[in-house]
Structures are given as structure tokens and as C-alpha cells.
Design goal:
Number of helices: 18
Largest sheet: none
Number of domains: 1
Order of helices and strands: HHHHHHHHHHHHHHHHHH
Distance between the termini: 43 Å
């Protein structure tokens, strides 16, 4: 496999060590992500048959609801990623150790409080009303929600290891873990369908516990081998490291909340304004059209931390060449999106048969959304990589404030129906197609001032 990668690199004219490392991890990411996509696609019809449309809609909404709480990491994951990469680029091992320990203990303390409060609240809430579903699920949801909250808290801590791997230029590790979780979950759910009756509780418990187990094992392995010297220790936790991570992390924190509001509230809005069953076609269209974004992200992910290191070392020519290539990939991804729209009816028929009907208009709207995100993504990753994210933060924050009321307005006062939810998101992110490229040009040409340089 190594010889094949070297041959591909030679044929493509890839020469620099950084570019070779990126292309290697893009190759592995492609394999892992392809496997994850296949596993997740097989899982959808299997799950619908096991749970039925309403229960599957409840699970999708529940998953989105839990995703809202990712803001509890207050941006420290992204902050750690940038600061650890900078410290390693400058051979500052003490700071690198301090950033890791400070991030782990800070997130650990936050998660303990989060889990305690969520468990306290969970037993005093009627989740059937929250998810607009039948009272028959009351008992299952009452048992499931504490497990989901506890696992989410643990996952928030253990996921930090993927930030460390990525910052250390091991870009495909996140894809590898996602692949293991996707395939493992598929196998476990398949076994569940053979040994158990339909149960939202059993399904949700498996989906919550399995990823935590895999990430826990990765943490044990990483801090016993490659990152042994960076193993979290209380004595390495210092205020200046927290300030450094949190200073950058706070902006990422605001961006995370904004992204959650714009992208993770859709299922909840649809559930409340329509029903859990209406969430299913929406998510099927999202999963299908999202393939384009997933493929492009495989190429993008390695560049974040590589751009961080290149910017620290003032290797601007490499950054410019990298961005030119990423823009070309973005255009190819948009062409792929157009093709996917044209063949969508045939793919849906093969994939889910007659289980769910996905309107053509919904597919087109979803394609438009992904085309926009793909086109501004290269500039977004550059901005994230160098940490000049104030303007980025304001753009997403304004979009988040507008998104929910605009979604409700388009659904209630127009004839758009469910499509109005994704159209509202499209309207909120559209300005980024202008703002992000402008900021990149100003920064790379050293003409950025004011908010453009913060």
C-alpha cells in the first residue's frame, strides 16, 4: 500500500514533505470515509425496518438535540488543535504538554458538572412531549436519556485525542475512528435485529455506548505509546495555558454554538411543526447529498493543521498553491453535486425502496446548501487554521440569530413546507461565499486590517 501511495505522489508531482504527508492521509481518509459512508447507508434502511419511521425520527431528533450540548467544550478542542500544532512547530514541548493537560482537565471538570445536572433534570422531564411522540415511549426515553447524556459527556472528553492526532499531522486518525465506530455499530445493530424486538432504548444505548468505548481505548493506546510524554497530568495544568487555548477557543465556542443553532435545530423544528416521521425524508436527503461534502472534507481536513504550521513558519507560497488546489477540488465537488441531483430518484429507489418518499424539491434544496458550503470551505479552513476567526464568528453568530425564526416563518407563512427549513439555512450562510474569500485574499496578501485581521 505504501508503494502505491508513493507511486501516486510521484505521478501527481507531489514533492514537499508536507504535501506528501497530506496526500497520504487524504488517501487513507478516502478509504476510511468510504467505508463509513457505506456502513451508514446500509444502516438507514436496517434501522427504519427495526424502529419504524416515527421511532427513527425520534432518534434522529434526539441525536440533534444532544448535539446542541457540544458547546460545553467551550471551543477548547479547536483551541487545543491550533495551539498544540503551533507548539510542536516551534519545538516547545513544555507548552504542548501544558495545552493537552489543561484541555483534558478543563473539559473533564465541565463534563462532570454537565452530566450531574443533565441526569438531575432528565428524571423530571417528560421526553415524549419534548420529542412530540406517543406516550408509549415514555418508559424507554426515561431510561435512555440518562445513558445518552452520560455517554455524551465522556465522549466530549475522549474526543480530544483526535484533535491531538490531527494537530500532529496524523490527519486520517479521525476518519479511522469514524470507520471503526460506523462498521462496529452496523454489526451490533444487525445483531440486535436478529436477537431483539423493536426497541428504541436498546438501539439508542448501543449507539451511545459503543463510540465511547472505542475512543476510550484510543486514549489508553495513544497516551501509552506515541503521545506518552503528553499524557495529561495535573502538574502541567496552568492558567496561562488555559488563557491561551480559551482565548482562541472562545471564538471557536461562539462559532460552535452558531453552527449548532443553524445545522442541528432543523430536526427539532420539523418535529415540532410537523411530526417525527417528517424528519426521516429530510435526513435521507441530507445524508445522500452530504456525500459530496464528506468526500471534499477528506481532502480538506489535513490542511487545517498543515496551514497552521506553514503560517507559523511563513511558508506562504505553499499555502497559496494549496489553496489553488483546494478551490479546484471545490469546483469538482459542485459538479458531483449536480450529477447526484440528476440520479437521486434512482439512488433513493435502490437505497430505501418504497420505505420513504423524498420530494425532488427537498433534494434540490439540500444540494444547493451543500454546494454553498463546499465553495466557501477552503477559505473557512484557512481562516480556522491561522486563528483569524473574529469575522468568521460574527458571520455565523448573525446567521444563527436569524435561522430559527426564519425557518418557522418560511414553514408557517409560505407553501414551502419542510423545504423552508433548509432554505432558511441557505439564506443564513450565503454571505460567507463573499466574506471568507475576501478575508483570505486580504490575509495572504498582507493587506488585512481591523476585523479582517483578528
Amino acid at each position: 500500500m505504501r508503494e502505491l501511495i508513493n507511486k501516486i505522489q510521484t505521478n501527481l508531482g507531489i514533492q514537499s514533505a508536507r504535501s506528501k504527508n497530506i496526500s497520504k492521509h487524504v488517501f487513507w481518509s478516502f478509504l476510511y470515509k468510504s467505508g463509513s459512508i457505506i456502513a451508514n447507508f446500509i444502516l438507514v434502511p436496517l434501522t427504519i425496518k427495526f424502529l419504524d419511521n416515527e421511532n427513527y425520527g425520534v432518534w434522529l431528533t434526539l441525536s440533534s438535540f444532544i448535539a446542541w450540548f457540544t458547546f460545553f467544550d467551550i471551543g477548547l478542542g479547536h483551541g487545543l488543535r491550533n495551539k498544540f500544532a503551533e507548539a510542536r512547530a516551534n519545538n516547545d514541548l513544555e507548552s504542548a504538554k501544558g495545552y493537552v493537560s489543561t484541555a483534558y482537565f478543563t473539559i473533564g471538570a465541565i463534563c462532570v458538572i454537565f452530566v450531574f445536572l443533565s441526569l438531575l433534570i432528565s428524571f423530571n422531564v417528560d421526553w415524549t412531549k419534548i420529542f412530540n411522540t406517543s406516550n408509549a415511549l415514555y418508559g424507554q426515553l426515561e431510561l435512555l436519556m440518562p445513558i445518552v447524556f452520560a455517554c455524551f459527556g465522556l465522549r466530549l472528553i475522549f474526543t480530544l485525542i483526535t484533535s491531538i492526532y490531527t494537530a500532529d499531522q496524523h490527519h486520517s486518525m479521525q476518519g479511522k475512528i469514524s470507520f471503526i465506530i460506523a462498521v462496529g455499530s452496523l454489526v451490533l445493530i444487525w445483531l440486535l435485529t436478529k436477537t431483539s424486538k423493536s426497541s428504541l432504548f436498546m438501539f439508542g444505548a448501543i449507539f451511545s455506548l459503543f463510540p465511547v468505548l472505542i475512543l476510550f481505548i484510543l486514549n489508553l493506546y495513544a497516551f501509552s505509546t506515541k503521545f506518552k510524554q503528553f499524557k495529561p497530568k495535573w502538574r502541567n495544568v496552568k492558567r496561562e495555558y488555559f488563557k491561551s487555548i480559551f482565548g482562541l477557543g472562545l471564538s471557536f465556542f461562539v462559532i460552535q454554538i452558531s453552527v449548532i443553532v443553524m445545522f442541528s435545530t432543523d430536526n427539532f423544528i420539523i418535529t415540532q411543526l410537523f411530526s417525527p416521521a417528517e424528519v426521516v425524508p429530510y435526513n435521507i436527503a441530507y445524508k445522500y447529498m452530504g456525500i459530496s461534502s464528506m468526500v471534499f472534507t477528506m481532502v480538506l481536513v489535513p490542511y487545517w493543521s498543515s496551514i497552521t504550521v506553514a503560517y507559523v513558519k511563513e511558508e506562504f507560497d505553499w499555502i497559496k498553491n494549496a489553496m489553488k488546489n483546494l478551490i479546484k477540488f471545490a469546483i469538482i465537488a459542485v459538479i458531483l453535486i449536480v450529477i447526484m441531483v440528476l440520479i437521486a430518484p434512482y439512488i433513493y429507489k435502490i437505497w430505501i425502496g418504497d420505505l420513504v418518499e423524498v420530494p425532488v424539491v427537498l433534494t434540490v434544496c439540500m444540494a444547493t446548501y451543500f454546494a454553498i458550503t463546499v465553495l466557501y470551505a477552503p477559505f473557512n479552513y484557512f481562516i480556522n487554521g491561522i486563528g483569524k476567526i473574529k469575522l468568521h464568528m460574527y458571520s455565523f453568530a448573525i446567521g444563527a440569530l436569524i435561522n430559527i425564526p426564519l425557518s418557522i416563518f418560511l414553514v408557517k407563512y409560505t407553501t414551502l413546507g419542510v423545504e423552508g427549513v433548509i432554505i432558511a439555512t441557505i439564506i443564513c450562510i450565503l454571505p460567507n461565499l463573499i466574506i471568507f474569500p475576501m478575508q483570505y485574499l486580504k490575509l495572504i496578501n498582507n493587506t488585512a486590517t481591523g476585523i479582517w485581521d483578528k
